[in-house]
Amino acid sequence: MDLGLNKRVALISGAAGGIGLATARLLAEEGVRVVLTDMDQEKLEKSSADLAGEPLLIAADMTDQAQVDGLIRQAEERFGQVDIVVHTAGVTGAKGDPLTLADEDYQEAWDTDFFTAVRVARAAIPAMRKRGWGRLVCITSENAVQPYWEEAVYNVAKAALAAFIKNLSYKEAAHGVLCNTVSPAFIETGMTDGMMKQRAEEMGVSFDEAVKSFLEEERPGIVQQRRGQPEEVAAAIALLVSERASFINGSNLRVDGGSVQSVQN
């Protein structure tokens, strides 16, 4: 299927690994000129060594509006414009009793998981409007609609992100800018690796046993009994940023193996 993306320019955050890197690979194969950003320049360079084309790699802290503005400016200097933003950067944050977690714990998740999306939208969308074409896809989570008790800081930040992108979608589509979210669940990334390593240590079991027990006890909706792959999420993102998704706006596409056990949201 031709996605109609050849020569488009995409900025991808959180691109040094996981979903961001898988998305960069897929879009580059489709002829997209990619701009990759993450916190660590060296890690970016190593992870993108086999990427098609000539990606622009820029280390940046997306909690800083000036650095986000700089990302867009550098991308425009190199490629002339930014057509697509895929925002995958985020943290799981602190876990525990929602009433004993510190203000700082909530603030960290808010700044990283929610406000970075506000900043990149501010920086990128005005120029998309003027050109009459653009795509913004942000990664939320199953947690936005199916919150887990000990993950309150992540839950509220991702729920806010989902509401923000829906809010943007109402008016931006009139300018040809489509805004959507993708909600993964239990994808094989560094984030879930860390969760499972900690679980394995706490339970005194192997990593694989920790994954198996987590699926059985905590994610019964994933009847395939495995973690999803970053490439499976990337495929959904590629569709949403393409010409093939020209009538998809303000939507949330789950890539969760059935983890969310409800009809709505």
Features:
single chain; 265 residues; alpha/beta; Rossmann fold; 2 domains; seven-stranded parallel beta sheet; 14% strand; globular
The computed structural class is alpha/beta
Q: What does the radius of gyration come to?
A: 18 Å
Question: Count of DSSP E strands?
Answer: 7
Low-pLDDT segments? none
> What is the domain tally?
2
Would you mind describing this structure in some detail?
The chain contains 8 helices and 7 strands, in the order βαβαβαβαβαβαααβ. It starts with 8 loop residues before the first strand and ends in a 10-residue tail after the last strand. The chain is an alpha/beta fold. A 7-stranded parallel beta sheet has the order 3-2-1-4-5-6-7, sandwiched between helices. The protein is 46% helix and 14% strand. The chain folds into 2 domains: 9-186 and 229-255, 3-Layer(aba) Sandwich (Rossmann fold); 188-227. Strand 4, helix 4 (103-131) and strand 5 (134-139) form a beta-alpha-beta unit. The chain has helices at 18-29, 41-47, 65-79, 103-131, 152-172, 190-203, 207-218, 230-240; strands at 9-13, 33-38, 56-59, 84-87, 134-139, 177-184, 252-255.
